[in-house]
Amino acid sequence: MPKSTAPAPDFRETTTMKDLLGIPEAALDQIMAIAYQFYASGHYQRAATLCRGLIAADHQYWWSYSLYAAVLRRLGRLQEALEQIDLGLAYEPGESKLLLMRGEILAALGHAPPGPSLPRGRTLVLRRRSRRPRRQTSRLRTLRALRSMKARRGSTRSPIRVENRRSAS
């Protein structure tokens, strides 16, 4: 029997804590919504704490790295923000938001001109994907609910309740 020369995938890299502990997607979505609310209201330390928990629970999802990098940037910790963006890009290399944030942070650090950091000869095309994995769809609904709340300003309702009311009708 021939031996495989390819190394076995690292268990820690392929398995998330969410899978090991059976954390439901809905719980992570609620935590993401709360973390974004803290970020939007200027409570950066609280948002950072939740982002670290989200990354610990599911280290393969880019959005948690994105929000954590935004928080670190607001706190003036640009080098750490860049590291988080790079970690997110390791799991989702073509994510336009991460690429744009990376370019902005590099420009703020004085390492590159402003704009997205793309490989030479490649252009950034922003378009909607026709099909998204189910996990991202529920998270996008949560983000849309947050954006609509932010647009209304002054509403004290939780974005999760807004989302549930819309889906219940």
Summarize the SSE layout with pairings:
Elements: H1 11-14, H2 17-21, H3 25-40, H4 44-57, H5 62-74, H6 78-91, H7 96-109, H8 134-152, H9 159-168
Helix pairs in contact: 3-4, 3-5, 3-8, 4-5, 5-6, 5-7, 6-7, 8-9
Q: How is this structure best summarized?
A:
This protein has 169 residues and is an all-alpha fold. The protein has nine helices and no strands. Mean pLDDT is 76; it is low at 158-169.
Keywords for this structure?
169 residues; 9 helices; 0% strand; globular; disordered C terminus
What report would you give on this structure?
With 169 residues, this protein is mainly α. 64% of the residues lie in helices and 0% in strands. It contains nine helices and no strands. Helix 3 (25-40) runs parallel beside helix 5 (62-74) and helix 4 (44-57) packs antiparallel against helix 5. Mean pLDDT is 76; it is low at 158-169.
